[in-house]
């Protein structure tokens, strides 16, 4: 929960916890961008003291597809349109009832649940996006959070070339660095035991090629 008003944050935290939710709350956009990863839902007040709430919303959405509900005191049509275009899954205006918030949270989570339950399988490689685990030939592969996000991004579009800029936008959500992407790619290759899973397309980006890896393992006839 990202809420600048401390009294509102405290009251909402109590209510959500009574309904069985684990809640972490922050008061600024900078804090939100530092801690949003790993949560099941983001409740984002767009009226923040440091960063424009729409910018925080679009940055989070560019990095991942975590369910996000925008909250604001502004309830004009243009405000709702801007919030939804920035990546919010739903939009609720203050003042609102707690029952309405719970209903909207449940609806957003129902829509998100199929995405959260998916897994990616390519040959002996399995990426469990709900448990955030990687297994190769039934062996657990220990990866960092960003390595997991990077591998999932590539594996979701096998044989497609994804640029460094696009990978940086999806995984890190800020200005991109060639060294950051290349370092994580090299680390993934080492952990997967071969470079053939992810190939470099010079001057463009990277391609996840499970077919090439399986062909390399196929014994010669």
Unreliable stretches (pLDDT < 50, length at least 5) are: none
What is the radius of gyration?
Answer: 20 Å
| Main sheet strand line-up | 4-5-6-7
Based on Cα principal axes, name the global outline: elongated
The count of strands amounts to 10
Quickly count the helices.
Answer: 9
What structural category do the secondary elements indicate?
A: alpha+beta
Run of helices and strands:
HHEHEHEHEEEEHEHHEEH
- What is the helix content? 40-55%
Strand content: 15-25%
Main beta sheet: 4 strands, antiparallel
Mean pLDDT: 86
Through-space gap between termini: 59 Å
Structure commentary:
The protein is of the alpha+beta class. It is 46% helix and 18% strand. It has helices spanning 6-18, 29-35, 53-63, 77-85, 98-116, 145-155, 164-171, 178-192, 210-217, and strands at 42-45, 68-72, 90-93, 119-122, 125-128, 133-136, 139-141, 161-163, 198-201, 205-208. The strands form three sheets. Strands 4-5-6-7 form a four-stranded antiparallel beta sheet, with helices on one face. Strand 1 (42-45), helix 3 (53-63) and strand 2 form a beta-alpha-beta unit. Helix 2 packs parallel to helix 3 and helix 6 (145-155) crosses helix 8. The longest helix is centred in the middle third of the chain and has 19 residues, at 98-116. It is elongated, with a radius of gyration of 20 Å. The N and C termini lie far apart (59 Å). The model has no long low-confidence stretch (mean pLDDT 86).
